[in-house]
Amino acid sequence: MPLKDVYERNFDEDVPAAGQSSRGCPECGGLVHTNSIETTCEDCGLVLEDRPIDHGSEWRALDGGERTERKRTGPPLTPARHDRGLSSEIGFDRTDANGIALSGRKTGQLARLRRENRRGRWASKAEKNLAHGLSDVRRMSGALNLARSLRDQACQIFRIAAEQGLMRGRSIEAMTAASVYAACRCAGLPRPLEEITAVAAVPHDRVQNAYTVLNRELRLPAMTVGPAGYIPRLASELDISPATRRRAADLARVMIAAGAISGCKPAGIAAACLYQAGLEQGERVTQRVLADAAGITPVTLRTRWKHLQALLID
């Protein structure tokens, strides 16, 4: 029986290479054969091709049927877990793979195995702290509706901080919140520190100190978010029209060109531009609502708005 009748793919068979056997070896004209490793000439031994690519499907049917159950090797590695997603879990189901109920003896055995598996999950105290910190990062990322890429970046920052010994003498919760804030800063996402600390389990000053340590020791590529970066977020939160949003972005560029944002909070500049744009477009938004959304006081908003009006008059 030929091998091709046994195996579905003839990737590892010694057969003439397609497109090579007709013209033969370019050196001696001999017969060319290929196997799972290389394509060679039978006469002179010339290697024509090395390590061919397997163009077959990347899934496998493990049931031996007609490929109705297509399986892969499992989920990809993720930095969001301490073991990068390679841990084993023993479920609480009381039936086997065929749906047959387990006996009491087998259920007790699984309970003991589950307990020992839980005890042996962490090899050291440092690994247990890492797992606790990554779990807290996932919790805060979910509360802030961050993208999965940002969540993974925050987990990677926390993992590097733990490997370099920056956790010693500091709170795990503070470092996790600082890692989330650092990921937002590195991505240029306009998320103020007050918003991060609102879902954290530690006060604002401890998160600020932890972020200072991360920024100094890891030399993070943090990006500065200008007033224009806060305008889409505030406009979406307050349901402001696109025309008002575009006018506010133009006003923000006017203030940036005039150098009137030095020493000012970017969210306050964005709120003042939105307020002025709303007045021009006939879309009234109260100062109190804008100030609360931007995390500033109405007095600060009025001060920035007066500066903007002075620039527009000039």
TrEMBL record:
Gene3D superfamilies: 1.10.472.170, Cyclin-like. Zn(2+) binds at residues 25, 28, 41, 44. Residues 135-216, 229-310 form the Cyclin-like domain. Keywords: Initiation factor, Metal-binding, Protein biosynthesis, Repeat, Transcription, Transcription regulation, Zinc, Zinc-finger. Residues 1-23, 57-89 are annotated as: Disordered. One of its GO terms (cellular component) is transcription preinitiation complex. HAMAP family: TF2B_arch (MF_00383). This is Transcription initiation factor IIB. The lineage of its organism: Archaea, Methanobacteriati, Methanobacteriota, Stenosarchaea group, Halobacteria.
